[in-house]
Amino acid sequence: MEENSIPEMLRTNLESVIITMLKINITDILHFDYMDSPSPNAVMRAVENLMYLDCLNEDFELTKMGNDICDFPLEPHHAVTLVHSVKCGIADSMCKVISLMTLSSIFIRPKESQRHN
Fold it and tell me: Number of folded domains in the chain?
């Protein structure tokens, strides 16, 4: 076991962090004074993913989609899927699917059953 754990900023997906920073007008995301700076490769990979999701344009500015999904308490790829599902008329089903995808486990085991193993 490591003596010190790896900071969360270095372990997580940066897409949500970057889109939130851009929403509050922090534009220099590569040179921002992070407490634990992520690698430039991780930042650029997140930017590329956001561009692929049509959340950022080629000038690294938020698009309409980017502004819309900032209000969702979801990872950007889930929020974009939800926005597109509304246009397709399947938002109810997609909400259920995304809800299940964000859970660590969908199975709950009562405490009484746990003792019988």
Answer: 1
The predicted pLDDT at position 23 comes to: 95
Cα distance between residue 85 and residue 91, in whole Å: 5
CA 102, CA 111: separation in Å to the nearest integer?
23
52 located within any domain: yes
**How far is Cα 5 from Cα 12, in angstroms, rounded to an integer?**
13
Distance of CA 54 to the CA centre of its chain: 14
**Percent helix, percent strand, percent coil in the chain, to nearest 5:** 50, 0, 45
If pLDDT is split at 50, 70 and 90, which confidence band does 19 have? Answer: very high
Cβ–Cβ under 8 Å, residues 36 and 12: no
**Considering the domain boundaries, does residue 31 fall inside one?**
yes
CB 83 within 8 A of CB 47: no
